[in-house]
Each structure stands twice: as structure tokens, then as C-alpha cells.
Amino acid sequence: MGQLFSLESPISHVLARIVDIFILNLVFIISCLPIITIGASTTALYSVLMKMIKNEEKSIVKSFFISFKANFFKSTIIWMITVLIGAIILLDFLFLGHLSGLIRFLFTGMAIIFGFVFLCVTAFIFPYTARYEDTIKKSILNSLLIGTSNVPSLLAILLMNSIFVFIILSSNLGFLSGLYFVTFGGFALLAYLNALIISKVFSKYEVFNR
């Protein structure tokens, strides 16, 4: 029994990880409250999680704010670009309802292509910014290339996040359940699952570049 609950036991590691996820989620939510800081907060979240996956994290809160400060300017610009382009693509899809015939077919195809490009970038851009030092232009381009070159991983990330969004929007109970979930670790847990996939994708390029 003593060995079961020792600091080195598997159960202790799992419990410690749960506590880490809860603390990280709380710090992330607080850091996102100004809204404009969501980009920097997301980058910092992934920075800590990818270190956590490699067992390289030392102090979760300290590591979070170091990354938050270091990537604030770049992540904020990326966040604003993401919101702007996302809004434009959403308006494009809404506008399709007013078209018909060949014009609607052509614009639907364009909207789907741009939507796919947008999803490729948004799935990887903040983890990429957390992991690598690069210009905004190169970060966006490389995130796009990574997304289009790793479609199965991209689809796994999109499916996982889409299920969560669907549950929240499905009903009042789903919304309340989702609100409870994200409040008590959901954001960090979902990002952790994303980071597990993304870290494997990144590792392929890191091995290639060695």
C-alpha cells in the first residue's frame, strides 16, 4: 500500500498530472480574460504542455508566463490575423446562401479551399510559435505546410475539437456541461491531447533536421 501511493508510483504521477492540468487551465483562463491576450495565452499553454509531454517542465506557472512574455507581441498579431480571416471566411459561407447556380458552386469551392487552409494554419500556428523561433510570415507558411503534409493528424485534431464544440452547442445541458468541463481543466486537457498529436508531428521534422 505504501509503494502504491509513493511519489514514484504510477498513481502519484497521474494525480500530479491532473493537478498540473487543473492549475495550468486556471492560469490560462485568467490570462485570456482581456481577450486580446488569447493568442499569447494559447502559445504559453502549448509551450508548457509540450514540455510536460517530454517531462521537461519545472515550474508550470513560471514557465507559462515566461513563454507568455517572450511570445506576446508575435502571438497577439497572429491572434488578430486569425480572428480577422476567420470572420471573413464565416461571412463568405453566410453570403453563399444569397447565391445560386454556377456562381454559388464556384464561390463554395473557393470558400472550402480557403477554409481548409485556415484550419491547417490555426491547428498548428500557436504550437509552432511555442516551439520554434520564426517570423510571423514563416510561422504561418510552415504551419500551412505542416497541416497539408499531415492530413491524418490534422483531421484527428479537428475531429477532437469539433466533438467538443458540438457538445457545447447541442443543448442547454451540453452548454452547461461544457462550461463546467472547461472551468475545471477542459481547455488544458483538450490542448494536452492536441499537443500529444502535434509533438509527434513536430518530432518528424526535428529528426530530419538533425
From TrEMBL:
The keyword Translocase does not apply. It comes from the Bacteria. The chain crosses the membrane at residues 22-49, 77-96, 102-128, 140-169, 175-198. Keywords: Membrane, Transmembrane, Transmembrane helix. The keyword Translocase does not apply. It holds the Pfam family DUF624. This is Integral membrane protein. It comes from Lederbergia lenta.
